[in-house]
Here is the input.
Amino acid sequence: MTPDVPAPLTVKKGVCCALYAYDVGLSIDLDACKKQIASWMQNATVRQNRRAPKYFDYRPAPLPVTQSVTPCKIGAHAISAEVDLLLYDFGGVSVSYEIPFSGGLDTLRDISCQLVESDVLLDDSRRRVEELLKAIQGSVARPGIADLVEDYVVFQIDEYDTPVKPQELHTYYCREFAQVLRAETQPLSPQEVADAMACRISFAEDDVTLIDWNAAMIFDREAEDVRAVLEFANTELLEMRFLDRQLDDALDRSYEVISKRSWLRKLIPGSSGASVRSVSQMQVDGAILFERVSNAPKLLGDQYLARVYRLAAQRFHLSEWSTGTLRKLDAIESIYNQMHDRAASWRLELLEWIIIILILLELVLPFLPKSLFPH
Here is the structure.
């Protein structure tokens, strides 16, 4: 029977998954990566036994790699002995650390705050991605690690000893959960608590998932599929942010190309074509990355995971990022069309002037003294 005033929630078994997403290039040839990783560091292996979510139809499937971890701690909490790196064909890499835990909700809050305040895992993840990129550089188109990184924390609670149903957890422990999700030690306002707890979803009577922009909490023993969805959504957010920055730079460069081209430079053969090709390449690169990221996962046959993804996308504002990306791609296309039309118009004008000059020469030449044209 559910008590009116429940006892403090105590977790018997749980794991915190700290995720760090990076962009390492325009695209990755995953088949070629397998061979290069095999000859990489001795403590790095391609995980063949990692269970792929059966409802996911990745095209192509991401490549999981496992490395051993030098013993370290986040505060008083030890990191598991292995770290997972997940490589996506669109150039994203997700690094995942696991921190086993047990205890009260103050333990979860402490881990959440430590991960925000400490750069230990952030620095370690970047170092591993840098080493990985050196090993697979030949399989990456336009290799280079972007300075952007997207981190996310997933708390998976397998067992707890308080007699409260999962669907009622958010009712009795909403303030404590909000502090965990927002990595805050101070009590939060009712509005902040309500916002942190707004996105929750359940499949059965014995599970519930809370999704926030900084972290998620999963009360479920079999949560690997949900974690995989959240890991992809976090990587997708990173790629959307990275693409948005690239498109901003492309728009700035396109404006410079248009505004700084002098009339003298226009006379140089091929100068217009080079500028048009440059803008066109920006547009193509942005469109390809956007399509690869948007179409990477297909959640076939499982409406629940599709709903989890929609909630994560809502919390990460992925639709707003997509809308902004499409708007900027349209702007670059408009600039390209204008530059193409302007270049074509300039070529026609130049051709007309050449014809006029030739006609004038043909009319004038017969009246010029023959002494000007020595044999």
